C-alpha cells in the first residue's frame, strides 16, 4: 500500500429487491449513504469527495445520472467521480475511492455502487447486437455457459456441484436481512428440478435482477484510529488491485483467465498473503452463476486446478467450513449489477469488523472481496483485515 | 505529492464524421503514436485509464471493445471513467500518487456523429423534472448565455468576437475541424439557433480522440526533455438543477482553481473547455485570469469538440506548448454536464 493507510469505517446497504418503486434514484443512493454515514458517525458535511459506480447508463435510461444527484448527495462544491468497468465496476469504484485516501489527496471519501435494474431488462441490455459480431441473444448466462461446460469437462466435477453452491448461497441469504432472495423452502431437489436455462445453468443457479445500493465511508489512518477508539472497529485495507484483458485474444483461457490470476497475485502480494487458503478467513466472491464458485476458487489460488469443486462438495465453503464463501448469500441472492462488486467488498469489511450479524464468521480477521465483469475479463479485488497493515 | 508530468501526447485529426472507422479503429493509431513518442515499452505501462460514453456509442459497455486498441495482453492494470478523459488522467494521477504506478497511459474518444448530439445530451438531465421536456444541450446553454448577457458578463458582440478569434487561431492547429470564420460583423447578421446563441456560438459536432502518457519524477525526466509537470489538479461539481444555480458564475471552477494553485504564479496560456462562446468569460472570471492571458490558442472546443476527449485535449494543448518551450506555465480546464456543471482544473509547468 501507499503512503496513507485506508480504513473502512462505514457500510450502508439498502434492502435489495426486484422493484424499489417507492424511492427515486437519488433516494435509493441516499438510503445507503445515510446508513453508511450513521455507521461512521459522520454527516455529509464531513465527506471530502464522492466516487460513484454503476453499470451502463442505459440500464436506467439516464446519461451520467450522478450529475442530477449532486444536490441530493450534498456534493455541491465537492469532487464527484464516476467509474465504469463492466460487472466489476463497483469493486473498481471502491478501489478508486481507496486510492484517493491512500494517495493523501482526501481524508474522508464516500463511495457508492448502485443499480435500479427494474428500470429496464438487463439481460437484453447484455445481448446487444454489435455490427460484424455474432449476436448472443442470451444474456450473460448464455455467454458463460460454454465456459462452465468446458470447466466440467476439464475437472470432471460432479454435475450437481452448481446445485450445491446455489443451495448454500441461498440458505446463507436467509441470514442476511438485506439479501434480495429469501427462499425459505429452498432444497437440493428444488434447485435441481428448476428450469434449465443455459445448460448446465438452471434457473435457481442464476443471479436475480435487483434494485439496490451500497455505500462505504473510507478514511485515512487517523479516521480509522478514531473510530477504533470509540469502539467502532474499522476494516483496514491491506491491498487493492484491478486487472483487465481483452474479450478475445489468441491463447486466452476463459475458464481461468490470466487477468484474474494476476489480480489475485497482486492483491495477495500487497497484503502479505503467501497461502491464501490458510491466511484468508472468509471470501466474498462474485458468483452470478453457481459454477463460478469452484472456477474462482481455482483461479484465485484457493485450490489446485481441477479441484475447486471438491471444496464445495466437502463443505469447505459453507459457513461452518474452513473457507466460508459468500456468507451474505452472494450475487446468487442479490444482483443490482452496479452495486454487486462493492457489496462483496463491503461484506468483506463487515466480516473483519465483526458486524455481519447473523452471517458473521466468528473470529474473521482477514477477508477477500472479489468482483469480475465483461467476458470474465475485468477484475477488482481487495483484502481487508481487522488489524492495521 | 509526487511530481507527475505529461511526457507525450497524440490526437486525431478531428472531423465532423469519421464514417469509415469505428471507435477502436479511430483511437488505435493515436494510442500507437503516443506510445512510440513516450519511449515507454508497449507492455511497460503501470496503469491505463480511459474515458468514453455509452450514450454516444449507442451501446452498453462500449469501452470494452476499445480495450482491443491498447493490446491488453498480457493483462494490464486498467480502469475506465464514464466522463471526459481529463478525469481518466485525474484517476491515473491519483494512482501514481499512491505509489502503485510510475507511468500511465490515458486515452479518451467520442464519436458524436451517429446520433443527434444535442438531443442525446438532453438525456443527461434530471429524469423527473427536466428530461421529460427534452431540453437539448443548446437550449440549456442558451438559458445560461441569456443569464450571462443580462448580468453583464458578456454580450452577443463579445461572443461573436470569441468565435472569430477561436476559429482563426485554429488555422495553425493541424488537428482542428473548423479553421476559419467570417468577420464578427457578418456573424452578428446570422439567424439565432436558440436565442441568444447563433451557430457560431456553439462548438461543432466532432468525432475524435486523444491519448497522453504520464510519468513520475526521474522517469519523466529521462523520457522527456521538457516534461509538462502537473503542479496542481482538482475537480469540483456544481448543482444540477438550473433553478438552484447562478448560471452566470462557476463556483466549482473557483474552488478547483484555488485548490490547483492557479494563482500561485503567472499564467501564460489557458486552454478552456468552452463548448459555447459565453463559457469563456464565465471561466475567465472564475479562474481569475487577467486580460493578458491568451485563451485557447489551439482554437479550443469551438474549433473541434470531440465529446469525452475535448477536456483532455485542453491538457494536451497546454502540455505541447510546454514541451516545445513556447510557454512555462499554463492552465487547462475540462468540463462535464450541462452549463459547466462539473469542472476540472490543472496547472501545468515546465522546469527552469
TrEMBL record, chain A:
Residues 253-383 form the Thiolase C-terminal domain. This is Unannotated protein. One of its GO terms (molecular function) is acyltransferase activity, transferring groups other than amino-acyl groups. Gene3D superfamilies: 3.40.47.10. It holds the Pfam family Thiolase_C_1. CDD domains: SCP-x_thiolase. InterPro entries: Thiolase, Thiolase-like, Thiolase_C_2. It comes from freshwater metagenome.
TrEMBL record, chain B:
InterPro entries: Thiolase, Thiolase-like. One of its GO terms (molecular function) is acyltransferase activity, transferring groups other than amino-acyl groups. This is Unannotated protein. It comes from freshwater metagenome. The lineage of its organism: unclassified sequences, metagenomes, ecological metagenomes.
